[in-house]
Amino acid sequence: MHAYRTHTCGALRAADTGKTVRLSGWIHRKRDHGGLVFIDLRDHYGLTQLVISPDTPGFAVVERLRAESVIRVDGEVLARSAETVNPNLPTGEIEIRAAEITVLSEASELPLPVFGEPDYPEEIRLKNRHLDLRRETLHKNIVLRSKVIQSIRNRMIGQGFLEYQTPILTASSPEGARDFLVPSRLHPSKFYALPQAPQQFKQLLMVSGFDRYFQIAPCFRDEDLRADRSLEFYQLDVEMSFVTQEDVFAAIEPVMHGVFEEFAEGKPVTPYPFPRIPYRECMSKYGTDKPDMRNPIVMQDVSDPFRGGGFGLFARILEDAKNAVWGIPAPTGGSRAFCDRMNSWAQGEGQPGLGYIFWSDDQGGWGGPIAKNLGPEKTDAVMGQLGLGKGDAAFFVAGDPKVFAKFAGSARTKVGTDLKLVDENRFEFVWIVDFPMFEMNEETNKVDFSHNPFSMPQGELEALNTKDPLDILAYQYDIVCNGYELCSGAIRNHLPEIMLKAFAVAGYGPEVVEEQFGGMLNAFRHGAPPHGGLAPGIDRIVMLLANQVAIREVIAFPLNQQGQDLMMNAPSEVEDKQLKELHIRLAPPLKAS
Fold it and tell me: Which of 44, 64, 280, 483 is the most buried (most CB within 10 A)?
């Protein structure tokens, strides 16, 4: 017999009745029933119930053992009586009558219970992640992650992609988020950078004659944390040669749809081809470039009825040509109580309030201050444009859309959620396309890249030479699912003259481009194929499939919101000897003035 087990704790069934078996695992739960002790024994594969009588060797030891102690048990498989069968457990038709028990590892008092999964502070959970990972939900999430990655690999290889590895130690670059820097011992005062993404390397692979590349790539960005973002993360990095935007879409849509359908547990998934929405249209309808398409609310510009009078505040705002009034429909929201709650929410968001019109049964028509001042005819025009009627309401934001769009998008989300208009039992995909190539940097008041500096501008060199930079669109695209950006991508700029010109528009001289991106620029001068790609985030994919709202719930050993590993005490101080080897002297942190 094997030293530890003949079967796992999830393997035995009624057909195994009468067998002598050996199991090993953790004591998940222990119950004393009048002399008999029942133990749920757990391992990676499942649970099996043990029955231990007082005459079983080791009984006295088992009685005092704490939960999460590790034991080995030899015994006979028994069929449970009909009234004691557990239909919710794969092994629920049998139990093991223990003949001998050996303690393999005794657990001390636990800082975190495993059975039952009660809520515990994040600090305790992360400091004791080894215990947290034993909990059923988190354990299941990490297994799901592995299966999702394997499924992605199989689907990519099935489409003719090959997996290649790119460097982890590379050069710092000025684009994107802040780099993590690694000092070089061999080259004093110089630093490597951990890759924010394998962007340049995957493009260089295309220039090197490879065609369909993918990689489950680790990426590192020293940026502020939030629930769906981490300092280190993994992405499905993809690049293809001799492709148009349509080719990239056609390659990735079956992969994304297939993976979600495989692990969605029956939830509907958007069939491909996925819908496509240009960026500017997306912003005007949803107030965000990451719209949750399960929310049926579509905002509209309703400025015209407010011009020239009626509701004075909006009329004055519209005197500035750049301003507008947007309407946010609220089907079934026609009550003063709901409108007042939305107004209070807006004030909590730092806004002066949120104008509204609602259906008033008392008045037999539209009510609220805006309707009263605007008048019946214009009010009917506004609500008719929004497709609203009896029992409905609408909310309004006014001013410069560039300023209020984000708030309007949040209001749309709030209305859809509070009125239960969002179908949460589905996965809705959408492409956001035609991103602006450039934007105005509000801090410097200069033109800067808005998305990815290596993208091909629509219209190529002619557009860069003749058009207002803020009017130039790029072959850039995002996949959004249920309000989360899963990936960004682009058709790349593979021509040196276009690359130099694009960077010049953004204020980077040729010497900067040569210094920072000389390797790629030089490669382009030796013949580069048209190419493009994208990089869906593994962590966010698994987060959605696991029905979680934080990626730390699908990462085995995540950092906390302050970027700390509480279990391994990282980041930590290092010895002076190590600093000297790296030619580094620490400076005390600057005190806040």
Answer: 483
